[in-house]
Design goal:
mainly alpha; 0% strand; Tetratricopeptide repeat protein; 80% helix; disordered N terminus; membrane; Serine Threonine Protein Phosphatase 5, Tetratricopeptide repeat; 239 residues; repeat
Length: 239
């Protein structure tokens, strides 16, 4: 159909409507036109952003970079706490219990989740005649890390120190569930030695000696073994 004829037909159809109807139709057409313009503008703007910034997830990437920074800082802090913890251990080994406790408190004040600090503080308190607080701190270490062998050992040692031998034997066994620690075997041997139980004394002391022959010289001077020292089995073991 020719263009002229199409225009003529449109004029004829449009001319059939009243003025009011024409106004309504015109308004509807205007609204559609505005919607199309806004929609096109939105998609053009979105496509432009995508082209200019293909890594559009800026906020997420920023969070990831910040997270990596935090991980690096946490690693440095943990290394520092480990060094301070070694100082606390050294104080304890040197029987400077108050200094060990103070150093442990310094660590805890900076990081109350550093379980090793509670452990060394706890055993230092026990050796300072503060059994209740000492055990609370050792238990706190185990609450934060139930498989921390040194805390299990120290709990056994604290029980032994205060004459709670059955509990001590139980916790030495608990330590041996997670690590083969020479001093847990020695601890069990010393308790059985006090009880004059030659068989079990020799059994656990032999394990300790097999792990480190130097234990023989320590056992010779250990007063806990006095009740069994004259037995042939014990003498054969330490000679």
């Amino acid at each position: 159909m020719a263009l002229k004829n199409r225009k003529s037909i449109s004029s004829m159809l449009f001319g059939r409507f009243s003025l009011k109807a024409k106004i309504v139709i015109f308004c509807i057409l205007c609204i559609f036109a505005v919607i199309l313009v806004v929609k096109n503008s939105y998609w053009n703007r979105k496509n432009k952003i995508t082209v200019e910034n293909p890594n559009k997830n800026i906020t997420q990437n920023s969070v990831i970079r910040k997270s990596n920074t935090d991980i690096t800082q946490d690693k440095k802090n943990n290394e520092r706490f480990e060094e301070e913890y070694k100082e606390a251990q050294k104080f304890f080994s040197d029987k400077q219990y108050s200094k060990a406790i103070d150093k442990a408190d310094e660590i805890i004040n900076q990081n109350n989740k550093f379980y090793k600090a509670y452990n060394i503080k706890g055993i230092a308190l026990c050796y300072s005649n503060n059994y209740e607080e000492g055990m609370k701190n050792i238990d706190k270490a185990l609450q934060l890390n139930s498989n921390f062998g040194y805390a299990r050992f120290n709990k056994a040692l604290a029980y032994e120190l205060y004459g709670k031998y059955d509990d001590a034997l139980n916790w030495y066994d608990k330590d041996l569930e997670v690590e083969k620690y020479i001093w847990s075997y020695y601890g069990k041997a010393s308790i059985y030695g006090r009880r004059a139980d030659v068989l079990n004394t020799v059994k656990f002391l032999k394990t300790a000696i097999d792990m480190s022959p130097d234990i023989k010289s320590i056992a010779r001077e250990e007063k806990d073994f006095d009740p069994v020292k004259n037995s042939r089995e014990f003498q054969d073991l330490i000679k």
